[in-house]
Each structure stands twice: as structure tokens, then as C-alpha cells.
Amino acid sequence: MHVAIDSSFLEQLTAITDGWDGSTERRYCHLCNVSALLNQQLEDINWVGFYLMREDRKALVLGPFQGKVACTDIDLDRGVCGLAARTKESVRVDDVHTFPGHIACDSASMSELVVPLVSSSGDVVGVLDVDSAQKGRFSEDDRLLLERAAKIICEALWT
Ligand code: SME
């Protein structure tokens, strides 16, 4: 597995999402630190960050991230992110060139893992998106790990 995971990763994630005051402003503040932590911990990635559900629920809008400039709005019927948000299922793509409708924000990206963020009421509130310049970078273990991370994030910031 490429993830530099030790037991402290999920503990750090819990620590930096703790104490949310309920405001949108501070949710963004916590998510900024989460994107930084993921960028530090995940090896061989070129982009990691959040797309959050737009108010009209027709599209995702760019949230805190680390990486190159990215597209700002993703319709729910488009891209890997749209698929994960629509189906509430993680999507792991070994080769983005084989994925119909993949949105290439960074032409270096070759593989991608998108995990939905689901609130306690069952609504998709956004997605966590990770890209890599390596084909087949993300394993099932990575998917499980990031799903655990997404659960911690949602329980802390969408309660
Ligand atoms: N590749 C994504 C778009 C977001 S960027 O990767 C940052 C997609 O197809 O939904």
C-alpha cells in the first residue's frame, strides 16, 4: 500500500476535525487542514481535495484542496466525482483515460479515487477526490482507508 499510514493518521484526522463550531466558515477551515494532512500522508498523488454539494444540489463546487488549479463546478452527471456523488459509492479508476466523461483538471493525472461524503441524515454533502500521476495507484485498501477518513470527517463536520 502506498499510504504512509500509521495509527496516528486517523488520530490526527480526528484531532484536526474536532471542535467544529457549526459554521460554514470553520468547516472550511477544518477541511483545509484535512487536505493538507492527506497531502502529507498519501504518497504518489498529485491532487487531493474536496468538492462540496452546491446549494441547488445540481452540481459539486470546488472546496479546499492541495494541487494544481482545478475546475470549479462539476455537474452530477459528469466525471468521476459526479458518479460518486450520484451513487453514494466510492469510485476507483485505475486508468482515467478509460473512464467515459473523466474530467481532466491536471493532464498528468492517470488514476483517481473518489469517496462520497455522506451526512448523518444520509445526504451526499460532497466528495473527497484523490488523483495520481501513476496508473493503478489506488488499491482496495486505500479505498477502505479513505472511506474511514470520510466517515470521521462527516461525523465531525456535518452533524
Ligand atoms: N477528475 C475529476 C475532476 C476533478 S479533478 O480530478 C481535481 C472527475 O472526473 O470528476
Biggest β-sheet: count, sense, barrel?
6 strands, antiparallel
**Overall average residue pLDDT:** 95
At the first level of CATH, what is the class?
Alpha Beta
The fraction of residues assigned to DSSP E strands is 15-25%
Could you explain how this protein is built, in words?
- The protein is of the alpha+beta class.
- The protein has one domain: Beta-Lactamase (2-Layer Sandwich), CATH 3.30.450.
- It has helices at about 5-15, 25-40, 80-85, 140-155; strands spanning about 45-55, 60-65, 75, 90-95, 110-120, 125-130.
- Strands 3-2-1-6-5-4 form a 6-stranded antiparallel sheet, with helices on both faces.
- A hairpin with a 5-residue loop joins strand 2 (about 60-65) and strand 3.
- Helix 1 (about 5-15) runs antiparallel to helix 2.
- The longest helix is centred in the first third of the chain and has 18 residues, at about 25-40.
- The protein is globular and about 40 Å long.
- The mean pLDDT is about 95.
- Methionine sulfoxide binds near residues 47, 79, 80, 105 and 109.
In short:
With 159 residues, this protein is α+β, with helices and mostly antiparallel strands. The chain has 4 helices and 6 strands; from the N terminus they run ααβββαβββα. It has a 6-stranded antiparallel beta sheet with strand order 3-2-1-6-5-4, with helices on both faces.
Tags for this entry?
4 helices; 6 strands; alpha+beta; Beta-Lactamase
Q: How would the blueprint of this fold be written?
A:
Layout: H1 7-17, H2 24-41, E1 47-53, E2 59-67, E3 73-75, H3 79-87, E4 91-93, E5 111-118, E6 124-132, H4 140-157
Antiparallel strand pairs: 1-2, 1-6, 2-3, 4-5, 5-6
This protein binds methionine sulfoxide.
Methionine sulfoxide binds next to α3 and β6.
